């Protein structure tokens, strides 16, 4: 199996949804990606930064699941990144109430020596210049670089985003962001334009409506599993990315056909993430639960049709 480098935030979140609210709880892109990827028992490392207010229990949670933390800088006297948000009743839109960058404002990532030859690099949603810094530290060209980004960077760091996109293989963004990045309403046309910016594969996430995978003329659609209720969508996209990148690192098969499987694994894990607040569901997740839900996905998407 291949090594996986995970770049992103370890953070505190405070969340309010129609189902309730939390005080500060564990969050951050690297957290959700790491927990999801750990389901594949791969050799992974997180690259992030926290203050000394970040509980040791949270670090132990990741390390006990096989995530190497040599690349996590702990700043003495520093405060950890904090985000607070409130979701609307439809659970698809939210308002950001508080964003405190704290130690993240001066984040200068350092990839551990033993992981600079990693086959797969998962660049979580951070400033594109930080993402590029990680790629510049790799001693061998990764076989698969996956980048997550958002509209904030399209507004504030578009030039840097275009630069890093020239060095990646896969980009994961939502439909709104794909349209903003390209100026195209049609997602087919948007994907075509994004291909020309660098990435060979384009994953466009559509929330409760699933995800699309584009590779030149090849297109694959994976629906989202219908759930009785969505408790907290925070971290679902990062959990998807963790399942996607973790599966690819495990199988070491980077073909379009295998990426279809990676999409399904990512979607499956994300469907668990939304069932409870924060990381609560991912922490307790068992392998047999994943297998059972994968079977549900298979039943949902496979059928025989008689052509007349």
Mind sketching the topology for me?
Layout: E1 3-7, E2 11-17, E3 20-21, E4 25-27, H1 29-37, E5 43-51, H2 56-63, E6 67-75, E7 82-87, E8 94-100, E9 120-123, H3 128-137, E10 144-148, H4 151-156, H5 158-165, E11 170-174, H6 175-182, H7 187-196, E12 201-205, E13 211-215, E14 218-222, H8 236-251, H9 256-273, H10 280-284, H11 287-301
Parallel strand pairs: 1-5, 1-9, 2-7, 5-6, 9-10, 10-11, 11-12
Antiparallel strand pairs: 2-3, 2-4, 7-8, 12-13, 13-14
TL;DR?
The protein has one domain (3-301): Ribokinase (UDP-N-acetylmuramoyl-L-alanine:D-glutamate ligase). Helices cover 37% and strands 25% of the residues.
Structural account:
Helix content is 37%, strand content 25%. The model has no long low-confidence stretch (mean pLDDT 94). Helix 1 crosses helix 8 (236-251) and helix 3 packs parallel to helix 5 (158-165). The protein has a single domain, classed as UDP-N-acetylmuramoyl-L-alanine:D-glutamate ligase (3-Layer(aba) Sandwich), CATH 3.40.1190.20. The protein has helices spanning 29-37, 56-63, 128-137, 151-156, 158-165, 175-182, 187-196, 236-251, 256-273, 280-284, 287-301; strands at 3-7, 11-17, 20-21, 25-27, 43-51, 67-75, 82-87, 94-100, 120-123, 144-148, 170-174, 201-205, 211-215, 218-222. It is globular and about 70 Å long.
């Amino acid at each position: 199996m291949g090594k996986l480098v995970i770049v992103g935030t370890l953070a505190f979140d405070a969340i309010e949804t129609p189902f309730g609210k939390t005080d500060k709880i564990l969050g951050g892109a690297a957290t959700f990606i790491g927990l999801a990827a750990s389901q594949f028992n791969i050799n992974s490392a997180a690259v992030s930064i926290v203050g000394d207010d970040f509980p040791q229990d949270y670090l132990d949670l990741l390390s006990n699941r096989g995530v190497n933390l040599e690349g996590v800088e702990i700043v003495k006297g520093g405060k950890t990144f904090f985000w607070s948000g409130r979701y609307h009743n439809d659970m698809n839109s939210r308002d950001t109430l508080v964003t405190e960058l704290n130690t993240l404002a001066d984040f200068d990532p350092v990839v551990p020596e033993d992981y600079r030859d990693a086959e797969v690099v998962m660049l979580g949603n951070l400033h594109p210049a930080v993402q590029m810094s990680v790629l510049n530290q790799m001693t061998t060209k990764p076989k698969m670089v996956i980048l997550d980004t958002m509209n904030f960077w399209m507004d504030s760091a578009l030039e840097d985003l275009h630069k890093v996109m020239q060095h990646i293989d896969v980009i994961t963004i939502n439909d709104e962001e794909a349209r903003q990045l390209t100026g195209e309403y049609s997602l087919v046309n948007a994907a075509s334009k994004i291909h020309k910016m660098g990435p060979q594969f384009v994953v466009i996430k559509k929330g409760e409506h699933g995800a699309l995978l584009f590779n030149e003329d090849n297109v694959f659609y994976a629906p989202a599993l219908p759930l009785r209720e969505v408790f907290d969508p925070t971290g679902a996209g990062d959990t998807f990315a963790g399942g996607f990148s973790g599966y690819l690192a495990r199988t070491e098969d980077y073909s379009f056909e295998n990426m279809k499987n990676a999409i399904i694994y990512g979607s499956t894990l994300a469907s668990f993430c939304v069932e409870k607040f924060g990381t609560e569901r991912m922490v307790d997740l068992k392998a047999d639960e994943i297998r059972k839900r994968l079977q549900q996905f298979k039943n949902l998407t496979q059928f025989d049709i008689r052509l007349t």
